[in-house]
C-alpha cells in the first residue's frame, strides 16, 4: 500500500502550496479522506500513513467499517442522512456535515441528547441549485442556522457545499466564491448559539481551488485511494 502513502503525501503537498498561494496557514485546513466504497486495507493504509479524518457517505457502510479500522481516527458523515438513520449516525460519527432541513437537525439533536453528547454539524447548502442534489437553498441558510442554534445536542460549526461537477477545477471557482460569501455572512451574523469556523468544500478534482477560495475542510477520495471499485 505504498501508493496510498505516496498519494497522501502528494495531496498534502498540494494543500500546502494552495494555502501558500492564498496567503494562508496550512494549519487552517483539515483533510478528510473520503473512504466510501474503499476496501478496508486501503483505508487502514491511509490511517497508518497519518490520515486523521475519514468521511463516509452511508451510515450502513460506516457501521461495518468503523469498528475494524485501527488508530486515532475522527469519522465524519458527508453524505445525505435519512432521519431514520440519525440514531446510528450519532453513535458512529464525530461530525455530520450534511444537515439540510429543520426536521433533520431536530432529529439529530434529539438523538444526541438521548446519547448524552453534543455533535458538531455543518449545514449543507445546494450552492449550484441542482435538482438532483441535497442541501438547502442559499436563501434558506440563515433560517436553518437560527433554528439549529436553539437545539440542544448539536453545535453548528459552518457550512458544506458540493458545486456542480466539472472536470475543469476553474469552473468550480465561482461556486466556491459564492460559498465563501455565504459562510462569511453566516459567521458575521453572530447568531447566538452558533460557533462558525468551517467551510467544507473541494474534492479530488478541485480542492486546490477550494483552498485558494477559503475552504477550511477539503474532502478528498480518489486522489488518495485511487478510483473506487463498485461491485
Task: Describe the structure in your own words.
With 231 residues, this protein is α/β, with parallel strands linked by helices. The chain has a single domain (2-225), classed as Alanine racemase (TIM Barrel, Alpha-Beta Barrel). 40% of the residues lie in helices and 17% in strands. It has 9 helices and 8 strands. It has helices spanning 2-21, 40-48, 59-65, 86-92, 102-115, 141-149, 173-188, 207-212, 222-225, and strands at residues 30-34, 53-56, 74-77, 95-99, 119-125, 154-161, 198-200, 217-220. The protein has an 8-stranded parallel β-sheet with strand order 7-6-5-4-3-2-1-8. Helix 4 (86-92) crosses helix 5. It is globular.
Keywords:
alpha/beta; eight-stranded parallel sheet; single chain; 231 residues; 40% helix; 8 strands; TIM Barrel
SSE blueprint:
Layout: H1 2-21, E1 30-34, H2 40-48, E2 53-56, H3 59-65, E3 74-77, H4 86-92, E4 95-99, H5 102-115, E5 119-125, H6 141-149, E6 154-161, H7 173-188, E7 198-200, H8 207-212, E8 217-220, H9 222-225
Parallel strand pairs: 1-2, 1-8, 2-3, 3-4, 4-5, 5-6, 6-7
